[in-house]
Amino acid sequence: MTSGAQTNDDTAEGTTEDKVVDFYDNFTEVFREIWGDNLHVGYWHDADDQAPVEKATDQLTDQLIERLAPQPGRRILDVGCGIGQPAFRLAGAADVEVVGVSISKYQVGRANERAAELSLAGRVSFEYADAAELPFPDASFDGAWAFESLIHMPDKEKVLREIKRVLRPGSVLVLADMFSQPDTELTFQDIISSPEMGDYRAVIEKAGFTVREFTDITANTLAPQAVRETIIAGLLARKDDVIAMTGPEEFARMVDGIRVPNSYGYLLATATTD
Ligand SMILES: C[S@@+](CC[C@H](N)C(=O)[O-])C[C@H]1O[C@@H](n2cnc3c(N)ncnc32)[C@H](O)[C@@H]1O
To answer: Rounded to two decimals, what is the model's pTM?
Structure first.
């Protein structure tokens, strides 16, 4: 399958949402042990930046925080919150309230436990919700990010419209996500889909946002050689667990894709509501 197409139509085995829930309920811990608490790619500033994955993933969060730039007291929605690490970093950088949602009950439970452990539960909380049907009133947030989560949502325009509904006028949405590149093999086709870069911008605009920045940061998300070797070693150390979620062929493609990255692009977008 080449990129560009939406690949994860629902099948007799269940909807995309069912498969995403299954993936994150069962494999968040395996993912976390290999990759760390941030369930997103790393950001390396330049060729001299040899940051390990844990630091590089925080560096990507910092790129989003910079773009969101929330004023103190604002209420921010984290769409697809993982186990809360980006939300905690945001709450550490700005005096804001953060509400995260995930479709994985496991992640929501774990994220709330971690908020309590970090004494952040009064300011950072997590709820089980599908981003396509947010359980919040209209205009109840001052800003939002969708941090590598729309990749799992086939109808991105619908989700973006739903995010827009809960944002107050003049709010900022920051979006970090993968995009497809022509003629490359996609991995995890069951649970991900992504348009090509230009099409992605059009989706954000069709949902009613004004795009202020739209940047291809693919080059910054490619780990330095030494870091890639560490990631591969981590994957091989947990090979059986990873194969249990991916199957052997997907596993081999994953390892190859880390050795010679060539499949996904990565974009950062900032958009506003009128
Ligand atoms: C790659 S992880 C990123 C997690 C987090 N943003 C981070 O950077 O650590 C994707 C996240 O999107 C969430 N997600 C996927 N589909 C969703 C949906 N329909 N509604 C809400 N969350 C969803 C997953 O449960 C997971 O938390």
So the answer is: 0.93
